[in-house]
What does this fold into?
Amino acid sequence: MKNVKSSCLNFRCKQLSNFDGFPLDCFCIPDACKDDLDAVLIPGRLLKDRIERLAYDIARDYENEPFTAVCILRGGYEFFNLLLENIRKIYRILKFGETDYLTKHIRIEFVRITSYKNDKSTELEMCGINNMKTLEGKNVLVVEDVIDTGRSMAMFFEKLAQFNPKTSRLVCLTVKEKKTCLDFRPHYIGFVIPDRFIVGCNYEYNNYYRDLNHVCMISEEAKRKYAIDETNNETKATQKTDL
It folds into this structure.
């Protein structure tokens, strides 16, 4: 297996250090959503292309080594599916004719981690990790959609180490650039983004705006509008959309 270097496209690199996103009117955004969004951060097609490249890098680095892909639910599920679909395409080309190769090469596990209410990090809750003793001696690829402070993933990898995997790596689609984050970096990174709360392309804010076709930055007013009232665990909005 090859040594891995983080594969990263940095949205906060020198030439884009003050990047505030693309104007909403450059994309097909539902009119009902525009007042709740500030800008498009990552266009949907760019996101998919970047996932294809991550899949190529992962397949190249693992080569013929089998691995277990661990999906972090529930936010990472869509990213997980797209990533594995592209990895499988690459392996079908490399191992054409071996019908049972994918079954033997890639195994799947799921873990649910809950650490957010509104836009604040809360106590970490995990389920599924106690059933993962089969990871001992295995190559493990953890798939996550976003890293904010890094606290959740740092704690998860501490738990994972208890099962003594052969190797453990993390691929994350977006990593927020912030001064308060832990010194914890994924092996594979899709985008390093500004420290803003994002929605769309399966990113959501209290279950709102998950189905937008682009990754967008939600406005402060919308966060207040759809915040969860902790007294009754319901959103403050009078009517919930499907977006």
Q: What stands out?
A: DSSP finds six helices and twelve strands in the chain. The CA atoms of residues 38 and 228 lie 21 Å apart.
